[in-house]
Amino acid sequence: MPIFNRRSLLGAIAFSALTPLAWAQADNFPSRPVKLVVNFPAGGYADTIARLFSKKLSEALNTPVIVDNRGGAGGTIGADFVAKAPPMATPSC
Fold it and tell me: Would the pTM count as exceeding 0.70?
C-alpha cells in the first residue's frame, strides 16, 4: 500500500500553491498596540504577573502592550469585553 495516495498528494500541492498568497497579503502583525485584558482588579497578583508579562511581550513584539483590568462578576466583565471587541483585520484571499 503506498504511503501517499492521489487525494493526499493533490491536497499537498494545493496547500503549497496557496500558502505564498496568504503570506503576501498579510500585514505586519501587530499593526496597532496590543491590549492585554486581565479579569481581576488592579493591584493584585494577577495584575502584577500581567504587567511583567506585558513588558517582555512588548519587547518581543516591538509594539506597546496595554494592560486593561476589567475585574468583577467572577471574570464575566472581562470576558464580555473581549467577546464584544471588534475583530482584527484578516487578510482576504
Answer: no
